[in-house]
Amino acid sequence: MGKTTFIRSVAGLTPPREGEIRFKGASLAGRPPYSIAQAGIALVPQGRRIFRSLSVRENLLLPTSGLARPRGGRWNLPAVLEQFPQLAERIHHPGGALSGGEQQMLAVGRALMANPELILMDEPSEGLSPKLVQHVEAIMKSAREHGHAVLLVEQNFALAMAVADYIYVVSAGRFVFEGTPAQLIDAPDVLEQHLGVAQAH
Questions:
Q1: Which pLDDT band, with edges at 50, 70 and 90, does 68 fall under?
Q2: Residue 140 belongs to a domain
Q3: How many structural domains are present in the chain?
Q4: CA distances from 134 to 76, 129, 131 (A)
Q5: Which residues of 113-125 are buried (b: 16+ CB within 10 A; e: fewer)?
Q6: Per the domain annotation, does 148 fall within a domain?
Q7: Which terminus has fewer CB within 10 Å in the chain: N or C?
Q8: pTM, full prediction
Q9: Span 140-165, average pLDDT
């Protein structure tokens, strides 16, 4: 559908073949991923992409390791570990020893450690239990309350509807809908044809 490619293009990992990506009025064209990260964009990639041989602590500290002065904000190591107690319990364990849900927590925590203005989240609920999906939902809402914008790519309809202010529906690489969650609910053709959501009549 092109959703992951879109996220990777914003992060500088897959340069777009056409069009332009702008962040806070400035073009991101040609900028390497580290420069885009320094501009205030963090990525929670599909499949987590944590460093399996590094400890939980080392994974979390990576976003701040190359900064002469860490970006100010709410999130630091104690704050992230408070949000994810399971990571605190496994702080010295290698990332590869964590469960899938714990690895997703680590990927989200790592992004938060950068205190970004924009967090890109690519299928953060993938492979998670319903309880952990609720936790991810709460984290996204908390991030928004603390001033982070979130660009979410998600196939979990309920999760997307619960956290989104504005929704784009992508089909075959094209936008087939854009609007608020309320407007999407009032678009039964889009729900049924593109999202497989049948409304009660």
A1: very low
A2: yes
A3: 1
A4: 23, 9, 5
A5: bbbbbbbbbbbbb
A6: yes
A7: C
A8: 0.85
A9: 89
Domain with 86 in it: 13-154
Query: Which pLDDT tens digit goes with each residue over 30-52?
Result: 899 999 998 999 999 887 789 99
- Residue 134's φ and ψ, nearest 5 degrees, are -65, -35
| Under 8 Å between Cβ of 19 and 27 | no
- Tell me the longest C-alpha to C-alpha distance in the chain: 59
Type of residue numbered 48: R
Q: Which of 41-50, 102-111, 117-126, 192-201 has the lowest mean pLDDT?
A: 192-201
Exposed e or buried b per residue across 141-165, where buried means at least 16 C-beta atoms within 10 angstroms of its C-beta: eebeeeebebebbbebeebbeebbe
Which CATH number fits the domain that encloses residue 68?
3.40.50.300
Q: What is the pLDDT of residue 66?
A: 60
